[in-house]
Design goal:
It is built from four helices and four strands, in the order ααββαββα. By secondary structure, it is an alpha+beta fold. A four-stranded antiparallel sheet has the order 1-2-4-3, with helices on one face. A hairpin with a 2-residue loop joins strand 3 and strand 4. The longest helix has 22 residues. It is elongated, with a radius of gyration of 17 Å. The protein starts with a helix and ends with a helix.
Length: 130
């Protein structure tokens, strides 16, 4: 308990409460989860994990039924990095997972833009890898 750290934590809690960021996270997290389900139209989407606040993940697979992963020579990481940069998206990826954690203050319009750009990335990737 350093006094400066405690003061910063209390100020942070005040901002979270004043700007209703927890409620925003719950509401837009549900919306994110619902909107991500549309990505199942692409056969490379093996699983979508979302619904806990604003956290989410999209698992990409070569075969949805068997959950077979893409081989290294598919250059999934490089392709995704290029596609994200092209659309000005800052998205964390780990192997075959696209990890989502937008800020608590995200708006619905910003969420729609995120979903639209993710859809374009997955659509382009599915086309390139087919």
């Amino acid at each position: 308990g350093h006094p400066a750290a405690c003061a910063a934590a209390l100020a942070n809690i005040e901002i979270l409460e004043r700007e209703n960021l927890v409620d925003n996270s719950a509401q837009l997290g549900k919306y994110l989860s619902e909107q991500l389900q549309t990505l199942y139209e692409y056969p490379i989407v093996g699983d979508i994990r979302a619904g806990l606040g604003l956290l989410g993940a999209i698992e990409l697979v070569k075969d949805r039924d068997t959950k077979e992963k893409f081989p290294k020579d598919a250059n999934l990481k490089e392709r995704l990095t290029e596609a994200f940069l092209k659309r000005d998206l800052l998205v964390l990826q780990r192997g075959d997972l696209i990890l989502l954690s937008p800020p608590l203050c995200i708006t619905k319009d910003e969420m729609d833009l995120l979903i639209r750009n993710l859809n374009e990335v997955v659509a382009d990737l599915a086309k390139a890898l087919s």
